[in-house]
Amino acid sequence: VKQTEHAEFKRRGADLFLERSISLSEALCGFELEVSHLDGRKLLVKSSPGEIVRPMARGFDPMDDTENKMDWDVIEDSDCPDIDTVAQADITDVDTLKKACETQLKRKGIDVGVFVVDSCKATFKTGSREEILAAKKPHRGRTMYVLQDQRAFNPMRIMKAVKGEGMPTYKNPFIHGDLFLILNIQFPDGLDSDTQTNLRELLPPPLNTASDKCDEEHFVTDIDPVASYNANKVNMQAGSEAYDDDEDGEGRGGGGVPCQQM
């Protein structure tokens, strides 16, 4: 069976995903969307009274295959020598080492809880996050990459959804997945001073307030960070300030990591 892309819906398992844009007013005060479903029904999908739509978590893509993806906390100048080493690699490229944890080491049945990198090698260790953090000791020149607790990030993945309006499941067609809404909030290009004043009276107070002790006042502007980096790159390639200029450092590549199992 050849699966073709739908103009509006995307599928992941039994769940459906629908992307729509809403205004800032709709995000704060409520939205109503008409959705023409795959079976021809027209649904009115709306937010609950008093509910606010928040932007999706930065870097979170609900369509990504995250089943084997591992995220890491970085702890510099630290090691955990009391945790048993299960493998070692004569390589220091962090992205390659992360990939090794997700692929070749996992295929060997090794569940890495932390890997430690020094100037010439990396060691892979197993253990619970609690055990690893309890065993952490200062060690200059070594960096620990500790597997994050994925359970702690569950609230960041919460999305607006219509329960039971996804695809029927394969083994039980009476049980359906859910219909998730990818809501892109469109902000206005600008607001006049009167509108800003009225909004301040309606919204919660600001989290940041300035003191009278500031030396200078600056207004932010819109700048592309990639363009800024490229514009200044030439001037950063001399002397001790030549950081970030070697984007193709040793150890990168499509090959696997020559890990030595302990």
Keywords:
262 residues; alpha+beta; six-stranded antiparallel sheet; four-stranded mixed sheet; 12 strands
CA radius of gyration: 25 Å
* SS field, number of helical segments: 6
Residue ranges: pLDDT <50 for 5 or more in a row?
A: 239-254
What structural category do the secondary elements indicate? alpha+beta
The N- and C-terminal alpha carbons lie at a distance of 46 Å
Helix content: 10-25%
Strand order of the largest sheet: 5-9-7-8-6-12
What portion of the residues fall into strands of 2 or more residues? 25-35%
Count all strands and give the number: 12
Shape: extended
> pLDDT average, as an integer?
86
Topology, element by element:
Layout: E1 9-12, E2 15-23, H1 24-29, E3 32-36, E4 42-46, E5 72-79, E6 85-89, H2 94-102, H3 104-107, E7 114-117, E8 122-125, H4 129-134, E9 137-147, E10 161-162, E11 179-186, H5 193-202, H6 225-233, E12 259-261
Parallel strand pairs: 2-11
Antiparallel strand pairs: 1-2, 3-4, 5-9, 6-8, 6-12, 7-8, 7-9, 10-11
